[in-house]
């Protein structure tokens, strides 16, 4: 059975292909189009399909559109029409208005025609899957758990902003939903804009929080968002004022908003820290509620909020659940996979065969690599041991672009589309931020660590397979901090990726060689890009190499250096 999953409702447009219950391909549209997030989240473009991602998925499995048994889209327009409540705090014709909803629903309901225009008749094969069910499915089915409590938190689905559910052999059962305006995801978007970033910059706000004092605005923050004694959390809609570019009430609570590009002030750090603290508190309250009503030791997380590495650790270490799983793509792109997996379940497809591998994107053979170098006017060297040569360069202080195998699915570079550097150097972080990534100097970098000795370097706490996806921020072990300054944040934490030989042999080999050379079993790992989506093709990687101060680029076994 062949099922195509699609997300294009808001942002992070993506496609996934299932064959007999197994995910065989998945990719985000931004990697092909080079447009961040695939497209802007507008009321008039839900039918703007991730065409290149769809084509990649079909071509990778040698499947024609007419060979598909079903198509799943990760949003339900009928559910939206029934449950969404209009918003009086918004701009004319935009999200939340009567006209905005008419436009949004008309474009959603034209998705079958958009599919037919590019891939033939699709109406009878298309199923709309609710957005939060798609998120839940993206975590539960690949987790391998027979049963689990499921927590989904994001900006908004059809009408709900948070989902509490149970997963078992019968599928996913909704237990409770928390609807707009009570949105953790939207709070992060609004505060990010208050701090002078964009609504997509929650990662910056999370990084900023480590520099602040979360107690400074505890009382003030309780007028914006608070945890309720009966369970869950609530948001004051008037104070949040999500859909208007107005910060008057926030400025009354916290002080002046920051204009983009201006210096950060002390209260900005404290606001970020307070937001992180109340988010941890809210998610823990939801997890406690789930533990009381779901008889399972397993917790599955999804939704954009599940990219918060600090909150993820708080949940993992709370002692509520023995196991926690978060997929490599918990954000909206992952709903393409979740919608397909949920439809597979509903159609009686194979169960318990979905893999949790993130390596689901395109890969390129040697002839394609050579052709890309030639088209760029470069003459690469052929290495008999690229992992060893790259490790030697990194140990010598070089910045190495490492492009291997299939592209990752999800927002993290996990060793196949990565920039690698020496974690021992105190100057590496600033140099990467300023000269290569061209971004804020306060933003941290992550270590990719050999799985076996990782516990000697970091306080990993309870185990989780999701450590493989760089989704937990944990403290460096006592006595190790001074050895790896480039991968530690202001609070001494690191967003650790555990690297296993069986999951990524080439990356494991590189780090092993680096460990042999230096005694440090990790490398600094950040995404291979420069103010753009992570690279997808060899041509993308070469273009990024040429316009930055990266010292060497390895694509497969062929490499070039800045000198040549």
| Structure annotation, total helices | 19
Structural class: alpha/beta
What general outline do the C-alpha atoms trace? globular
> Main sheet: which strands, in order across?
13-21-20-14-15-19-16-18-17
Overall number of strands? 21
Report the uncertain regions. Answer: none
Strand content: 15-25%
What is the residue-mean pLDDT, rounded to a whole number?
Answer: 96
Taking all Cα atoms into account, the compactness measure Rg is 23 Å
Q: Report the biggest beta sheet as strand number plus sense, adding barrel if it closes.
A: 9 strands, mixed
Cα distance, first to last residue? 50 Å
> Roughly what percent helix?
25-40%
Q: Which key terms come to mind for this protein?
A:
564 residues; alpha/beta; single chain; nine-stranded mixed beta sheet; 19 helices; globular; five-stranded mixed beta sheet
Task: Give a quick rundown of the structure.
By secondary structure, this protein is of the alpha/beta class. It contains 19 helices and 21 strands. A nine-stranded mixed β-sheet has the order 13-21-20-14-15-19-16-18-17, with helices on both faces. Strands 3-2-1-4-5 form a five-stranded mixed β-sheet.
